[in-house]
Amino acid sequence: MRLRPLQRGIVCQQAVELITDYLEGALPRRQRERLEAHLRACDGCDEYLRQVQATIRILGSVRPTDLEPETRSGLMDLYRQFRDD
Amino acid sequence: MSDDDLVRRLRAGDEAAFGELVDSYHSSMVRFAQTFVSNRAIAEEVAQDTWLAVLKGIDGFEGRSSLKTWIFRILANRARSTGVREQRTIPVDPEGTAAVDSRRFDAGGSWAEPPVHWSEQVDDRLSAGPFVAEVWATISRLPESQRAVVTLRDVDGLSSKEVCDVLGISEANQRVLLHRGRSRIRSALEVELAEK
């Protein structure tokens, strides 16, 4: 399958591969402008971008398990042993 | 509490400073170590060894990176070598490198099966514990390098530069791994949300 060259605009299959570089601010200006033009015109890719952003928000909401008191006191014992040596 | 203050207190043997660091980072460290080793108990051991290395090394800490980055770099090196010693098999990426299955596009590269809208509703579901657990299960199935980058970047909130420092990778490589990891998790969420 041949995709249309980038110079003539971006197709959806290319757009989804550029999303991370776009969010990271790593796209060259012309490529960024072409992607933004595509996103304005394409509901599917606009939703795709929003889903990636939602994914990032969800990942940021995953909290580590709470530090157990026994684990903490074990580490403080480790600290005291280290200081005593 | 700034890094400078913490480092000064640690060097002076201030136990409370060590406690503050443990409170801030230990749980995240265990979670990150699990990226490289086979189970939680081993990840706890690796994190504990890292704390000892931090205490031994704090006098030599030069402040060229943040204290957190420095600690996580020690942790990453230890966890990785422990994983190698365990001869843990690292899953190869079974699903190739495309962000979206190519069958979702037509011959011209346009959506044949565009994403169903769910980005607007998903924030309401964040508070649901089981949902977050499913996201975490998806992360745990990512190939190791993608999991390490996604965990540090999106879960622990490190900057791209910090992630590169911790893992010893280039910015470009970091972006590739982040892209594949995030794409995989988005796909899993899509399946998950479609089912409910």
Write structural notes for this entry.
The complex is a heterodimer of chains A (85) and B (196). Chain A has a single domain (6-84), classed as Arc Repressor Mutant, subunit A (Orthogonal Bundle). Chain A is built from 4 helices and no strands. In chain A, helix 2 crosses helix 3. Chain A is mostly helical. Chain B folds into 2 domains: 3-85, Orthogonal Bundle (Rna Polymerase Sigma Factor, Chain: A), CATH 1.10.1740.10; 104-195, Winged helix-like DNA-binding domain superfamily/Winged helix DNA-binding domain (Arc Repressor Mutant, subunit A, Orthogonal Bundle), CATH 1.10.10. Chain B has helices at 3-11, 15-33, 40-57, 67-85, 129-140, 144-155, 160-167, 171-195. Chain B contains 8 helices and no strands. The model of chain B has no long low-confidence stretch (mean pLDDT 89). At the A-B interface, helix 1, helix 3 and helix 4 of A face helix 2, helix 3, helix 5, helix 6 and helix 8 of B.
Strand content of chain A: under 5%
The largest sheet of chain B, given as strand count, sense and whether it forms a barrel, is: none
- Give the name of the CATH superfamily of the largest domain in chain B: Winged helix-like DNA-binding domain superfamily/Winged helix DNA-binding domain
- Approximately how much beta-strand content do the residues of chain B carry? under 5%
- The share of residues in helices of chain B is 55-70%
- Encode the helix/strand succession of chain A as letters: HHHH
Any idea what the radius of gyration of chain B is? Answer: 19 Å
Question: What is the CATH architecture annotation of chain A?
Answer: Orthogonal Bundle
Count of separate DSSP helical elements of chain A = 4
Question: Domains counted in the coordinates of chain B: how many?
Answer: 2
Give the helix level of chain A as a range of percent.
55-70%
Shape of chain B: elongated
Multimeric state: heterodimer
The tally of beta strands of chain A, per DSSP, is 0
What's the mean pLDDT score of chain B? Answer: 89
Poorly predicted runs of chain A: none
Distance between the ends of chain A: 67 Å
Query: Sheet bearing the most strands of chain A, described?
Result: none
Annotated CATH architecture of the largest domain in chain B = Orthogonal Bundle
Structural class of chain A: mainly alpha
CATH class call of the largest domain in chain B: Mainly Alpha
